[in-house]
Amino acid sequence: MADYVYGPGRTHLFVPGPVNIPDPVIRAMNRQNEDYRSPAVPALTKILLEDVKKIFKTTSGTPFIIPTTGTGAWESTLTNTLSPGDRIVSFLIGQFSLLWIDQQQRLGFNVDVVESEWGRGADLDVLEAKLRQDTAHTIKAIAIVHNETATGVTNNLATVRKLLDAYRHPALVLVDGVSSICALDFRMDEWGVDVALTGSQKALSMPTGLGIVCASPKALEASKTAKSLRVFFDWKDYLKFYEMGTYWPYTPSIQLLYGLRAALDLLEEEGLDNVINRHTRLGTATRLAVEAWGLKNCTQKEEWFSNTVTAVVVPSYIDSGEIVKHAWKRYNLSLGLGLNKVAGKVFRIGHLGNLNEVSLLQPPPIHSSIP
Amino acid sequence: MADYVYGPGRTHLFVPGPVNIPDPVIRAMNRQNEDYRSPAVPALTKILLEDVKKIFKTTSGTPFIIPTTGTGAWESTLTNTLSPGDRIVSFLIGQFSLLWIDQQQRLGFNVDVVESEWGRGADLDVLEAKLRQDTAHTIKAIAIVHNETATGVTNNLATVRKLLDAYRHPALVLVDGVSSICALDFRMDEWGVDVALTGSQKALSMPTGLGIVCASPKALEASKTAKSLRVFFDWKDYLKFYEMGTYWPYTPSIQLLYGLRAALDLLEEEGLDNVINRHTRLGTATRLAVEAWGLKNCTQKEEWFSNTVTAVVVPSYIDSGEIVKHAWKRYNLSLGLGLNKVAGKVFRIGHLGNLNEVSLLQPPPIHSSIP
Amino acid sequence: MADYVYGPGRTHLFVPGPVNIPDPVIRAMNRQNEDYRSPAVPALTKILLEDVKKIFKTTSGTPFIIPTTGTGAWESTLTNTLSPGDRIVSFLIGQFSLLWIDQQQRLGFNVDVVESEWGRGADLDVLEAKLRQDTAHTIKAIAIVHNETATGVTNNLATVRKLLDAYRHPALVLVDGVSSICALDFRMDEWGVDVALTGSQKALSMPTGLGIVCASPKALEASKTAKSLRVFFDWKDYLKFYEMGTYWPYTPSIQLLYGLRAALDLLEEEGLDNVINRHTRLGTATRLAVEAWGLKNCTQKEEWFSNTVTAVVVPSYIDSGEIVKHAWKRYNLSLGLGLNKVAGKVFRIGHLGNLNEVSLLQPPPIHSSIP
Amino acid sequence: MADYVYGPGRTHLFVPGPVNIPDPVIRAMNRQNEDYRSPAVPALTKILLEDVKKIFKTTSGTPFIIPTTGTGAWESTLTNTLSPGDRIVSFLIGQFSLLWIDQQQRLGFNVDVVESEWGRGADLDVLEAKLRQDTAHTIKAIAIVHNETATGVTNNLATVRKLLDAYRHPALVLVDGVSSICALDFRMDEWGVDVALTGSQKALSMPTGLGIVCASPKALEASKTAKSLRVFFDWKDYLKFYEMGTYWPYTPSIQLLYGLRAALDLLEEEGLDNVINRHTRLGTATRLAVEAWGLKNCTQKEEWFSNTVTAVVVPSYIDSGEIVKHAWKRYNLSLGLGLNKVAGKVFRIGHLGNLNEVSLLQPPPIHSSIP
């Protein structure tokens, strides 16, 4: 049907999401609706719920595959674990952490904002100070983005866990892994993350439409007493249907379920750690290129370098938005705009998900029977 | 990739959603991601927002295309127009009205439930009595399903409006049109509906994934003072981006946007009133068939007959669930189960959306240039 | 893009080809071009050539997958095995055997036509008489359709072989299996068939585009001395590339190769003999229905009944073409026209390939890794 | 289903065919079979036959859309216009002209081969000499490739016409436009070409499967007396069905018909002359790049430079096949091998069909109704 902008050749998608979808995923989604109450869909769902835990590196977590976006996954994370007025320590380091904090405030939480200059990571010294002081355990949760998509900054979650352990602090650790999970090294169980979340259109390399949230046993426990009002995002409804073996409190997207199956199959085939290493190579290569262009990385220190997105600072006499516009109009190339505080100052190169890199194609596997 | 159940031939989908997707819609969705911040996506969105109003028969309404399901569309409707504790008159006539009422209660509203026997429509006499008494206007909203999908009952919305007008009552009229809009006669402006909602996988004949909500000017006004906590479902965020001309507070599904374009094109081509007439013919035909089988319609009176779904009562010595299971296993035919109170007692035939009927195919239109 | 005739619902395709394509095959073909000289395409081709032999029930045959239709596959069969002027015994029993005979004559062969009334099978008594007389072995080939698509008549190939053996006659047996292979019981090796051919759009349930020809060692030997001019259809070019391991003398359709892979996978999964049994059930069911309608089968004796197509004789006061036209316009249902001698007198129901039947859907296989 | 070689990212297809398919064409082909005897397919075919003439720049020609490849289109061209023993002047300038000459010889024509060094164009001085001498008009046809895909050499067809006119020679001009039509400046009527041919997988940017042949009135006239045996490739069968208005002597590929519709729509939208100019820019850019790399173009003179393919000569100590293999394994990049005489000496860059170039994307057209 209508193709709203057409030029010969292909779109070069280098935004930090939505990313390029692998052809096998597009093929898997090229299908009719199915009745989700038939025996086939629960059978598919059951194994998806099992397999999706691997992308979080958890065995004890409980995943929720919600028909929503990252914003909805945030809301599901907060409302299921906390009650209005609960104190959250939250780190403002860029546009996406800012938006999450805005959500936290609008949902009635008491947010203790720890702000850093954009381009720097979460200030964990401040966190330490707060934990030290909080002997009364008024802090109910730490909310942190693993990777700030607006500035290309990766936070150190292992240190967050170490600090909490050092002070024996019971706060929940809520992690936005939207631009990290399936691309950066993320270890839910090892780092004691209580809720982690991502969206299908990021490193999973699918269309938008699934907010995937994973809850630790402690988070599940918290959800039993959390008083935030919620229905659509309520884990309880999912858990009820998990027990019944039908899995879905409301109609899932059949197409996205098969797409997720295909995406997880590809991850399994390549190996999650190989995928993460590939992102490391591409992140490094991008930074070397930026350096070679004589431009500056918005990220101020190597420890925060992001392997999924690089925000490139342009000289002050240039509007970075013009670069993005020019790239689109002239090269059919999509780059990320600078957002909010860094609007006009940076443009962003997304290097996550289904992207080429220098590789050795394998001799093809030979299949003779239907998968 | 993996096809989890395969038998030769085609699945016969006769559930009241998700429904059969037309091939042009599947083709339109067979595509890569795009950057939603490029100029192309807002241009597409702008015209979608204009065209989608037609399915509600409104010119004054403001539509919101939300990446969610019907359940989320319900939540968006309630939380944007009402404050916790607000009194809602709500009609319990089947499983889906029950679930909506459950949501209303869990979201902290004061729900005045008007229950009917399953198989009967909303009791508008009770509504009248309540309106008559409510001279203080404590009733803030009437929440009603246009069509109860569990029992195949269509409520009379024109009468609801007449009653409100008769008593000059300012309550908002919130309508679940999930199994009616694009199939039954629905007139948002004429009937003074304040919020109407549907889901993409119903009569629009798309995959699941879009909750489409349309708000009257009065509803929009109400949203400015409604105190229900909300972020993901907050209209305010949409309105802000509408004004900026970029339209999306968070990442939309590119595939569903093009799918919606195709679905609206097909509606436009056939003509919405022709589509509604087609549903009338198919609904009538189904009821005649049920009668010919010697079976009873769950819907107790002709005035409530639904042209989108028929719940068929089986003889008491038969478990209707067995019929559904048998149809699936033996004929690759999906029917709707009886739910809750009517479990085992009825099975449901969905006759909405993209279904064949006796028709005269037209001589093909001749196109020589790209759309 | 343009959909030239659109009505709600689905097309009901009951012509004896092209047939309904299974969704997994459509998905497998939804892809970009690939370089057929890369290592991946030969690897795929090699296994396809091995697997495609199974549909002919041969282990000693050599298959050729030619970018053409059935008509081209006929031509490939004739020109590779015979020289101009060679005597062929050929059976005229309907429109498709007639067209093949026309081709044989136009290609310069000396065709000994054995005609039967349309609705009857090949007259093997005449064949026997000819073989008995032909002690000089002037007959170089027997050309016979396994199943005449115009009348729904299946010939008895086992008897053909018996007669040849009885008279120790060395004539090549050339079989048009277009509407039989993958649907009817066909045994290339056991029946001593020298060349068998089919087209992708028939019981293989793919799009048109592949003429699949399989040659016995004796046929291959004959091809070395056959003097018919040929290039595009010359097996020699294929054999040369088979030896080089690159397989293709000219560009293959990548999409059809992957589609063939998927189609063979589905056959393998269901089991070829189960597929043949399914066609027997559907053929029988169709004949029972025709009988119940009080109509006559064009096929005159049970021994010739076809399990892939039934030609239904209409009462003399009706034009069968009107039935076909009516079915298409009013029910979006495609039936086969009566052709040539039986035009206006019969309409045809194709019951081959990817069609539903009463079945027991299996509990879904569970796959967790990519195929 | 099975994806036989998979690596993250996309395949970079820079072979001179098959080329990259535009997404709208892939979408248009993502569909079920249809009955080609229904009214819809002839209606589509009729307009396709009209529109396809534009790619040849002819109004007087008669096109044949044959389910075959370029090799089959060659055969159709020769056998419909010539009789065995007829004298053809044919130019050997690379692998594809060599293969065509091989076909001409195997089909029994008397081929007068004019050979040039590979990298040079057809020697038109020799042609002139032959025409001058041939006062008896024993030369029945000139067979020439417009563009030799193996060496990247474009012949000057206007000069061929001028020579024929100068000597008032009636020989037919048969042109292989496989790697030129839809990409290079080609003018069937103006240049008095009698038969021109191309394949769908070349500059039309579709899958393999259609050999498109266009015949001048003079060629059609010649086909009435040409004695070459032919059936599958016989124009007469097409012409018979053209007259009947059903168009197809045997089953066409429904998917390719809709794909061709979409491909012609895209050509129409961009404008054929703009498309040709785009190829000029890309051809020029490629040659500049080759020069900048310090490598030599296989094409010896500027007048023969090809805007669809560049054969790059590698230093003598390098095997060009290794470059091609390395590009594929390491960069998922497909280049063309050197063939036959230039094997190991050149690699080829295809720059035809659906490729990006520096462009200005247009503000999107707004469509509100179905195409």
Can you give a write-up of this model?
The structure is a homotetramer of 371-residue chains. Chain A is α/β, with parallel strands linked by helices. Chain A has 11 helices and 14 strands. Chain A has helices at residues 23-29, 40-52, 70-81, 95-106, 124-133, 157-166, 217-225, 235-244, 254-270, 272-292, 320-331, and strands at 12-13, 62-66, 87-92, 110-115, 139-145, 147-148, 153-154, 172-176, 195-199, 211-215, 296-297, 309-313, 333-334, 346-350. In chain A, the strands form 4 sheets. Chain A has a 7-stranded mixed sheet, sandwiched between helices. In chain A, a hairpin with a 4-residue loop joins β6 (147-148) and β7 (153-154). The relative contact order of chain A is 0.18. Mean pLDDT of chain A is 94; it is low at 363-371. Chains in contact: A-B, A-C, A-D, B-C, B-D, C-D.
Secondary-structure blueprint:
The structure is a homotetramer of 371-residue chains.
Chain A: E1 12-13, H1 23-29, H2 40-52, E2 62-66, H3 70-81, E3 87-92, H4 95-106, E4 110-115, H5 124-133, E5 139-145, E6 147-148, E7 153-154, H6 157-166, E8 172-176, E9 195-199, E10 211-215, H7 217-225, H8 235-244, H9 254-270, H10 272-292, E11 296-297, E12 309-313, H11 320-331, E13 333-334, E14 346-350
Parallel strand pairs in A: 1-13, 3-4, 3-5, 5-8, 8-9
Antiparallel strand pairs in A: 2-10, 6-7, 9-10, 11-12, 12-14
Helix pairs in contact in A: 1-9, 2-9, 5-6
Binding site for substrate (chains A, B, C, D): 348
GO molecular function, one term (chains A, B, C, D): alanine-glyoxylate transaminase activity
GO biological process, one term (chains A, B, C, D): glycine biosynthetic process, by transamination of glyoxylate
